[in-house]
């Protein structure tokens, strides 16, 4: 039996674009837009620019009917006089003309969350680019959307314009997915690529990225890995059929990566990328955002600048790669409007690829049980016996060293010792680092990067 | 207004997986399977292996109820006794228990086409991996599916397991797509990669690929570019909103690429790949399958072995890349079952992303008007004046030469002359080749490869 995706008692099928004579033009899908920053402006520009094509593809027009933002007077380069201006953003949830609310305000709680809850409660569809809100409240919102029988969609929340939510939710839906990982933060990848290309250190490149508008004035959500972790927790839920579990993501950012680390990695045949990794296994759900060494024969090694890329491994499809622009008004607007087209077509179902009640609450995996290779870098005093101390700590913890390079004095006065380990349990590496924690020879924090693959 | 995707008078909404209490388990989606080759067997294995997960994701079970193939007695490694065996494949179209027919027979006409027409006429859904049939009859079948209000889906027809039909049809749906191109034939890419890695010539590598089962006994559909052209014509229709126009694809294969060409390309910083290119522009629809030189900084240069990859350029999303396994029973089955999950969810609409009546019949673009750079290789007699003759032909046609390399005698006795042109109109290159056609100094056909980008 071929079903309707929605129960016809709740939704008027006359709005549909099929009828007994085949296809017909139906009523417009009417959109209320909350937030008129660069992405909100991009959505309006996109709907204006590609209007006819979108109508052909969606089977009916998609029309913004109402907008709300903080400042009515700001010039956003688009004509807003066509739309109802709503001062109180929360009122969009029950706007009489709207079928769907698009939320581009941001923030995990506050006005965005209130709007989401109220919109779903009012029986309207909800489209958002808000990864923080989904990471923290995705399960609740999915339950509310299903209870109301309305769409909740968020392609723009992960990897900008790349249709990776759809790729996992639908394209790879036939597969048990064992792992999903990728470059999920364009700011970090821009900074790491630039450090690599120009041999410059983190702080300097960050300052330049901020001046150019590629990094926020307060960049910590990006460079400390929180933004990537929000996205990873959403991808993992869809890939593995688990409840979003942002609190279980182990997070490190790129703040402590030196130009020297990137140079050492390059000498060994690797590039450094901030990678979010999710794995589903017999020991639970593993989620980590961490700078990784990527071998040159892996496609992620060739992802430069602010580009994002996501890899998923399925038991029948093998390895899939999705790559494209991870941010920016155009790509993000493209993803938002793709969601609206799906809704206009009536092609939507449960937000996380299966009913919320069917998502498993999976226990977090113990990272110590994982096996892999690692890069360790110490900055040490230039004195006798330091190398022996590090080597002994490795030996005592059972870490087998594949290569060790010691370079002369750094600008800061210390000496760099970079180690690549053989494959072994991560617990051993953690123990070795613990042993060296009290050492008077080691300056500052050692840097640990995992090697992908 | 949020619609149903189907008119409720025609389809019983009780089959749907939404109801007023939220999600419920609904009736199974019942599948009749035509063709039990490696892919057909893969579909059965996949549905068995991932049964529970697929039920959770699809909202209901997907069950094979009937199968048909030429030889009932052949051991396919899967238990077929559970299914109705139907001797007459055509009878699957009206099998009493089936909601959807999956066609894995192949061939542009004959039994596959009959089955497609009859299935749609009987008001059942149709899923196929048959690119040849879609390239030749896709428009007719899309019209029939829409007329009947039933799904026609074919993710497996292009690029195996990669969800690129979905990526264009839905993921990039908000964009005007200016071009779509990619590596669409795994056999050719396997052969070219192996020629590149091992410095061996085409015939030798092809024979080995055939022995290993990576190439068909009759490989012409693959190596002469016809298979890639089938796929390109389907991608172009979805990307550009045009009617599939296989007859307008200009096709060259890889039969005449020498190891020496690959070596020359490598020396210049390029790799050789068979690329299908589609472009929509003011001058019409351009479609070409041709061996190309790919610069090393382009992701397609790093696609090796039987992997496929597709790039699309949208006016808001920018450049999207989809990459993965382009063939094989597992990946192809993954795509077939993804289509079935979409149908089970009720998430489907017009086959080519918009109603068939809305697809434009676009005139083919004149390739001569295109501008680009090209690689030309001549095998010539080792005698005085040959180089002057070639250079004069280029000059007279207005082709500007960027580099020219002449290498000593080949195994066949001739001398290789490889030329890379500056950017210019393709017409000029064609004219230069035309001028040299009668030359007694040039041995055999010159090889022309376009340079991507």
Automatic annotation (TrEMBL), chains A, B:
<dbReference type="GO" id="GO:0050661">
    <property type="term" value="F:NADP binding"/>
</dbReference>
<dbReference type="InterPro" id="IPR002912">
    <property type="entry name" value="ACT_dom"/>
</dbReference>
<comment type="similarity">
    <text>Belongs to the homoserine dehydrogenase family.</text>
</comment>
<feature type="binding site">
    <location>
        <begin position="34"/>
        <end position="41"/>
    </location>
    <ligand>
        <name>NADP(+)</name>
    </ligand>
</feature>
<keyword id="KW-0791">Threonine biosynthesis</keyword>
<dbReference type="InterPro" id="IPR005106">
    <property type="entry name" value="Asp/hSer_DH_NAD-bd"/>
</dbReference>
<dbReference type="InterPro" id="IPR019811">
    <property type="entry name" value="HDH_CS"/>
</dbReference>
<comment type="pathway">
    <text>Amino-acid biosynthesis; L-methionine biosynthesis via de novo pathway; L-homoserine from L-aspartate: step 3/3.</text>
</comment>
<keyword id="KW-0560">Oxidoreductase</keyword>
<dbReference type="GO" id="GO:0009086">
    <property type="term" value="P:methionine biosynthetic process"/>
</dbReference>
<dbReference type="Pfam" id="PF03447">
    <property type="entry name" value="NAD_binding_3"/>
</dbReference>
<keyword id="KW-0486">Methionine biosynthesis</keyword>
<feature type="binding site">
    <location>
        <position position="131"/>
    </location>
    <ligand>
        <name>NADPH</name>
    </ligand>
</feature>
<dbReference type="InterPro" id="IPR036291">
    <property type="entry name" value="NAD(P)-bd_dom_sf"/>
</dbReference>
<feature type="binding site">
    <location>
        <position position="216"/>
    </location>
    <ligand>
        <name>L-homoserine</name>
    </ligand>
</feature>
<feature type="active site" description="Proton donor">
    <location>
        <position position="231"/>
    </location>
</feature>
<dbReference type="InterPro" id="IPR045865">
    <property type="entry name" value="ACT-like_dom_sf"/>
</dbReference>
<protein>
    <recommendedName>
        <fullName>Homoserine dehydrogenase</fullName>
        <ecNumber>1.1.1.3</ecNumber>
    </recommendedName>
</protein>
<keyword id="KW-0521">NADP</keyword>
<dbReference type="InterPro" id="IPR016204">
    <property type="entry name" value="HDH"/>
</dbReference>
<dbReference type="InterPro" id="IPR001342">
    <property type="entry name" value="HDH_cat"/>
</dbReference>
<dbReference type="GO" id="GO:0009088">
    <property type="term" value="P:threonine biosynthetic process"/>
</dbReference>
<dbReference type="Pfam" id="PF01842">
    <property type="entry name" value="ACT"/>
</dbReference>
<keyword id="KW-0028">Amino-acid biosynthesis</keyword>
<comment type="pathway">
    <text>Amino-acid biosynthesis; L-threonine biosynthesis; L-threonine from L-aspartate: step 3/5.</text>
</comment>
<dbReference type="Pfam" id="PF00742">
    <property type="entry name" value="Homoserine_dh"/>
</dbReference>
<dbReference type="GO" id="GO:0004412">
    <property type="term" value="F:homoserine dehydrogenase activity"/>
</dbReference>
């Amino acid at each position: 039996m071929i079903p309707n995706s929605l129960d016809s008692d709740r939704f008027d099928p006359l709005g549909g674009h099929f009828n007994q004579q085949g296809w017909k033009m139906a009523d417009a899908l009417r959109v209320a837009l909350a937030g008129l920053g660069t992405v909100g402006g991009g959505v309006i520009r996109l709907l204006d620019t590609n209007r006819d094509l979108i109508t052909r593809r969606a089977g009916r027009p998609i029309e913004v009917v109402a907008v709300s933002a903080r400042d009515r007077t700001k010039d956003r380069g688009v004509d807003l006089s066509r739309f109802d201006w709503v001062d109180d953003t929360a009122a969009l949830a029950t706007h009489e003309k709207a079928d769907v609310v698009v939320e581009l305000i941001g923030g995990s709680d506050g006005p965005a969350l209130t709007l989401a809850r109220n919109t779903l409660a009012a029986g309207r569809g909800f489209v958002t680019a808000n990864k923080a809100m989904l990471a923290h409240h995705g399960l609740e919102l999915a339950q509310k959307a299903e209870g109301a029988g309305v769409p909740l969609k968020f392609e723009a929340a992960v990897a900008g314009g790349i249709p990776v939510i759809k790729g996992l939710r639908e394209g790879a839906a036939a597969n048990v997915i064992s792992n999903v990982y990728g470059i999920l933060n364009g700011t970090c990848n821009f900074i790491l690529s630039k450090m690599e290309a120009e041999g410059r250190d983190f702080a300097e490149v960050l300052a330049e990225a901020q001046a150019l508008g590629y990094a926020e004035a307060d960049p910590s959500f990006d460079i400390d890995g929180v933004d990537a972790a929000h996205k990873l927790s959403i991808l993992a839920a869809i890939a593995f059929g688990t409840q979003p579990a942002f609190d279980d993501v182990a997070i490190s950012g790129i703040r402590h990566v030196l130009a020297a680390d990137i140079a050492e990695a390059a000498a060994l045949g690797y590039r450094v990328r901030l990678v979010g990794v999710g794995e589903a296994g017999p020991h639970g759900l593993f989620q980590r955002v961490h700078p990784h060494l990527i071998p040159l024969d892996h496609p992620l090694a060739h992802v430069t600048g602010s580009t994002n890329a996501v890899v998923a491994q399925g038991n029948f499809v093998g390895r899939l790669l999705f790559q494209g622009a991870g941010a920016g008004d155009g790509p993000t607007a493209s993803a938002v409007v793709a969601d609206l087209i799906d809704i206009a077509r009536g092609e939507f179902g449960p937000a996380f690829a299966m009913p919320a009640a069917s998502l498993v609450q999976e226990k977090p995996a113990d990272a110590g049980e994982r096996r892999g290779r690692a890069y360790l870098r110490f900055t040490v005093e230039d004195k006798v016996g330091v190398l022996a101390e590090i080597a002994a700590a490795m030996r005592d913890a059972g870490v087998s060293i594949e290569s060790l390079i010691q370079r002369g004095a750094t600008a800061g006065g210390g000496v760099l010792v970079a180690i690549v380990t053989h494959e072994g349990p991560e617990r051993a590496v953690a123990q070795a680092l613990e042993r060296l924690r009290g050492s008077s020879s080691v300056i500052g924090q050692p840097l640990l990067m995992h090697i992908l693959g």
